[in-house]
Design a protein that fits this description.
425 residues, alpha/beta, Aspartate Aminotransferase, domain 1, Aspartate Aminotransferase, domain 2, 14 helices
Length: 425
C-alpha cells in the first residue's frame, strides 16, 4: 500500500478499510463473536491464527475418503495420502522464498529444531557455542540447552545470549555482528528467531547470515513468528536451516504440522548425521523395505513418519489464500496497518505504557508489544470482556498482532480507543 498520511478519527479508519484491496480476505475467515453476536477484534494471530472458512471442507473431504476407502486412501483418494504433503511444497516454497526441494511440512516446530541441530550443531572442544537472543521463546532455550548438554558441554559456558544495550528494547544488528566477529571461532551455531516473540523485533537475517558464515558458523532461524508475517528469502539469504510452526500467522489450526527449510547446498550431503525415519527414505525403494537408510535428496530426507493428513488438509486451506493474496501484498498492508495502530496509540498522552517493538517497519512484523506500568494482566482481561482479544506475557507485556489477512483499520481504531481508556483508568 502507498505511504499514507494518517488521521485519528474513526471516519478515516472506515475509509481506509473501504479502500483496502485485501479487505475481502477477512470474509474468508471465521471471526470469533462477542456474547452480543458481533465480531470480536481479534489481535492474537501471533498466538493462534483464525480458521479459514474453507478448512472445514478440506478436512471433511479427507474424513470422507477415510470412510469410503480405508487404507486404500493412501493411493486412491482424490488427493492420495502417500504424497499428500507434496501438495504443500510449492506454496510453502513461495511463502518463505525457497526452492521446492528445500522445504518440507512435517512434525512440530521444536521436533524440527532438534532434528536440525542433530545435523547442524556439531560441537568440538574449540567450537561449541550457540548464539541465541536473550528473550528467545522458552522452547528454543530448552532445546539448545538440552542439545549442548547432550554433547557433554555446559550451557552456562556454551550458550551465548545476546541482549539489547542498556536503555534499548531491541538488539542492534551491529552488536550481533560484533559478537560474531569477536567469538566466531568458538561459535558452532547462530540460532535466532526471525521475529522475536516477546518484542516483535524482526532480525536482519541476511546480514547476520553473512557475518556468521564468514566465521565458519552454521546459521539457523526459528521463523515461528516470521513465516506468513514477513517476506522471507531463505534461499537467497543462504541460511543453513530454518524451522517454523503453522498455527500462528499461517492459520493451520491448533497444533498444526510445522515446516522446515534446508538449503540446497546440503541436499545431497549424506555425510551429515541425522535421525532417520522411514518417511525420509528414497521414495522409489521405500516399499521394498531395505534395511539401509537412503535419504531423499533435499529437506524431505529429514522426515521421520507420515504426517497427519487432517492437519495438512486444514493448512492447505490457508496456504491457498496466501497464494492468492501473495506475501508481498500482505506485507505491504501489514506495514501500513501496524504503523497506523502505532500512530493511534500516540494520539493521547498516556504515561502507562511504552512500545518495545522497533518503530522502523523493516525491523518488525505485524506486532506491537506494549509494556504496561500499571494495570497489568487486568487490562488484557477487561479488553477481552469487551470483545478485544490480544495476548498477555508476564511480567508486563500486552502483545497485539494486526494481521493483514483478516484485521482491518477499523479493528486497529477500536483497539486503540478502548485500550487507551483502560490504560488511563
Amino acid at each position: 500500500m502507498p505511504t499514507v498520511k494518517f488521521e485519528a478519527g474513526r471516519d478515516f479508519a472506515q475509509a481506509m478499510t473501504a479502500a483496502d484491496p485485501l479487505a475481502a480476505y477477512r470474509d474468508r475467515f471465521h471471526i470469533p463473536k462477542t456474547s452480543a453476536g458481533s465480531d470480536c477484534v481479534y489481535l492474537c494471530g501471533h498466538s493462534l491464527g483464525l480458521q479459514p472458512k474453507s478448512a472445514r471442507a478440506c478436512v471433511e473431504q479427507e474424513l470422507q475418503e477415510w470412510a469410503r476407502l480405508g487404507v486404500e486412501g493412501h493411493f486412491h483418494a482424490r488427493n492420495p495420502w502417500m504424497p499428500y504433503h507434496e501438495l504443500l511444497t510449492a506454496p510453502t516454497a513461495r511463502l518463505v522464498g525457497a526452492l521446492p526441494s528445500e522445504v518440507v511440512v512435517m512434525n512440530s516446530l521444536t521436533v524440527n529444531l532438534h532434528l536440525m541441530m542433530v545435523s547442524f550443531y556439531r560441537p568440538t572442544p574449540s567450537r561449541n557455542k550457540i548464539v541465541i537472543e536473550s528473550s528467545a521463546f522458552p522452547s528454543d532455550q530448552y532445546a539448545v540447552q538440552s542439545q549442548i548438554s547432550f554433547h557433554g558441554y555446559d550451557p552456562a559456558a556454551s550458550l551465548l545470549e545476546i541482549a539489547p544495550r542498556f536503555g534499548d528494547t531491541a538488539i542492534r544488528t551491529e552488536d550481533i555482528e560484533t559478537l560474531i566477529a569477536e567469538k566466531g571461532q568458538q561459535i558452532a551455531l547462530v540460532l535466532l528467531g526471525g521475529v522475536n516473540y516477546y518484542t516483535g523485533q524482526a532480525f536482519d537475517c541476511s546480514r547476520i547470515t553473512e557475518a556468521a558464515q564468514a566465521q565458519g558458523c552454521v546459521v539457523g532461524f526459528d521463523m515461528a513468528h516470521a513465516a506468513g508475517n514477513l517476506q522471507l528469502q531463505l534461499h537467497d539469504w543462504g541460511v543453513d536451516f530454518a524451522v517454523w510452526c503453522s498455527y500462528k500467522y499461517l492459520n493451520g489450526g491448533p497444533g498444526c504440522v510445522a515446516g522446515c527449510f534446508v538449503h540446497e547446498r546440503h541436499a545431497r550431503n549424506q555425510e551429515l548425521p541425522r535421525f532417520a525415519g522411514w518417511w525420509g527414505h528414497d521414495k522409489s525403494s521405500r516399499f521394498q523395505m531395505p534395511s539401509r537408510f537412503q535419504p531423499i535428496a533435499g529437506a524431505e530426507g529429514w522426515q521421520l513418519s507420515n504426517p497427519s493428513i487432517l492437519s495438512m488438509a486444514a493448512l492447505r486451506a490457508s496456504m491457498e489464500i496466501f497464494d492468492e493474496a501473495t506475501i508481498a501484498r500482505l506485507r505491504a498492508k501489514s506495514e501500513t496497518l501496524t504503523s497506523y495502530l502505532e500512530f493511534l496509540l500516540a494520539q493521547e498522552e498516556c504515561e502507562n505504557f511504552s512500545i518495545l517493538t522497533p518503530r522502523d517497519p523493516s525491523q518488525r512484523g505485524a506486532q506491537l508489544s506494549l509494556q504496561l506500568k500499571k494495570g497489568g494482566r487486568g487490562i488484557c482481561e477487561r479488553l477481552a470482556q469487551r470483545g478485544i482479544i490480544c495476548d498477555w506475557r508476564e511480567p508486563d507485556i500486552l502483545r497485539v498482532a494486526p494481521v493483514p489477512l483478516y484485521n482491518s483499520f477499523l479493528d486497529a481504531h477500536t483497539f486503540a480507543d478502548k485500550c487507551l481508556v483502560e490504560m488511563k483508568a
